[in-house]
Design brief:
It is built from 14 helices and 15 strands. With 439 residues, the protein is of the alpha/beta class. It folds into two domains: 3-212, NAD(P)-binding Rossmann-like Domain (Rossmann fold), CATH 3.40.50; 227-438, NAD(P)-binding Rossmann-like Domain (Rossmann fold, 3-Layer(aba) Sandwich), CATH 3.40.50.720. The protein starts with a helix and ends with a strand.
Length: 439
């Protein structure tokens, strides 16, 4: 066996290797904690000094990682953070967990991957393994990461440095499937790269699934999220069709879900959000355009999902109109601005579009979210109302955008003059209630 590979595998197997995680967000911090819990010394690198300071104080800013865990790992000397890439000089393994957003033009913004790899490049050395976890289009690891880490250094992938892709599968707020027990797909630039990366991740994660290349691993991630995006687009369009037909979409979905095979339940809403589903499929669509192919399913689903906030606002407008009120000048309370229940993550949240559209129509909009005390997004700066029930009573319409479990929906329904329920949060209580309009 290649002696460089052999020595690195020994360090990983004995947990004497030092690790670095580039990017300490919703993906990076949980991953760093899992590796540190497994006995590795982990250094987190992030350009945001506030995050670095919080980690070093033993505090967490990610709901999935308790501050008690961070404090214990910091105290034990197994977790630390810095803004300086020079900390990577002596590390043996690096995981890159940086954002990959879309630009306003709809094309991929890979600037964070470029910045991370260029920051790491001066410190790569023989006997290092680097794994990219950021969601991206097939070919990114080979075309972008590989040359940045090997051309100037002169290191050969699979012989002196080992490079792989392993898509993150974080679903914020879940306790059943976590970073540790969610199967981890890994594909290397070479077979030896896959060997080393798989051996490393197997030290901390329950299941590692090897595939033949970085491109397969990259494409697998996009398939997962394209599947969800398209099915959400289908059920969102179903909601629009049922509205035209005067049929209860929620009853239709529940009836279909009784079939024990051949059907998977998805539910409609005011749009889709999060760091993956609204964005990742468009990476694939963009890549295919470069190859003169139009990803029609992706484009259509994106169009439907993007227009759902407008459909939700139209339901608010119609409900107010039936009560002799205009949207302009109406006092509207939005319940929930996180993109999904019981978390504080607002990335790509449809609530932002709903708020903006209502404000454009002249509504006096406020919001409440127990997980998001305030936010500032593209010119919209707001704070969660202090007294929820007082505002529910004062509002002309209460719009349930995110169905947090912490809300007392029966009390809200009793106190509100009008509720527009975009998530079926009220269930049977809202089905035939004249105060309720459902999506």
């Amino acid at each position: 066996m290649n002696p460089i590979k052999q020595e690195l595998l020994y360090k990983l197997d004995t947990r004497s290797a030092t690790l670095a995680v580039l990017g300490l967000g919703y993906v990076g911090l949980p991953l760093a904690a899992v590796f540190a819990e497994a006995g590795f010394k982990v250094i987190g690198v992030d350009p945001v000094s506030e995050k670095v300071d919080m980690v070093n104080r033993g505090e967490s800013y990610v709901l999935d990682v308790p501050s008690e865990t961070v404090a214990r790992l910091v105290k034990a000397g197994r977790l630390s953070a810095t803004t300086d890439f020079a900390a990577c000089r002596g590390v043996d393994a690096v995981s890159i967990c940086v954002p990959t957003p879309l630009r306003k033009t709809g094309d991929p913004d890979l600037s964070f991957i470029i910045s991370a790899t260029e920051g790491l490049a001066p410190y790569v050395h023989p006997g290092m393994v680097v794994v990219l976890e950021s969601s991206t289009y097939p070919g990114t690891t080979r075309e972008m990461v590989l040359p940045r880490l090997t051309v100037k250094s002169g290191l050969k992938a699979g012989q002196e440095i080992f490079i792989a892709f392993s898509p993150e599968r974080v679903d914020p707020g879940r306790t059943d499937w976590t970073t540790k027990n969610t199967p981890k797909v890994i594909g290397g630039i070479t077979e030896d790269c896959s060997d080393v990366a798989a051996a490393w991740y197997a030290q901390a994660l329950d299941t590692v699934v090897r595939v033949s290349s970085t491109e397969v691993a990259e494409m697998a991630k996009l398939l997962e999220n394209t599947f969800r995006m398209i099915n959400l687009g289908l059920v969102n369009e179903l909601a629009i069709m049922c509205d035209r037909l005067g049929v209860d979409v929620w009853e239709v979905i529940d009836a279909a879900a009784t079939k024990p095979f051949g059907f998977m339940k998805f539910t409609p809403g005011p749009g889709i959000g999060g760091h993956c589903i609204p964005i990742d499929p468009l990476y694939l669509s963009w890549k295919m355009k470069a190859l003169n192919y139009n990803a029609r399913f992706i484009e259509l689903a994106s169009e439907i999902n993007t227009n759902m906030p407008r459909f939700a606002v139209s339901k608010v407008q119609d409900a107010l109109n039936e009560r002799g009120k205009a949207v302009k000048g109406s006092r509207i309370l939005i319940l929930g601005v996180a993109y999904k229940p019981d978390i504080d993550d607002m990335r790509e949240s449809p609530a932002l579009d709903v708020i903006h559209l209502l404000q454009q129509k002249g509504a006096l909009v406020q919001y409440h979210d127990p997980y998001v005390p305030r936010f500032d997004h593209e010119g919209i700066a707001m704070e969660s109302v202090a007294d929820l029930m007082a505002e529910v009573r004062a509002a002309d319409a209460v719009v349930i955008v995110t169905n947090h479990k912490r809300y007392d929906y029966s009390a809200i329904l009793e106190a509100a003059a009008l509720v527009v329920d975009t998530r079926n949060a009220l269930g049977a209580a809202g089905k035939h209630n004249p105060k309720v309009t459902r999506l």
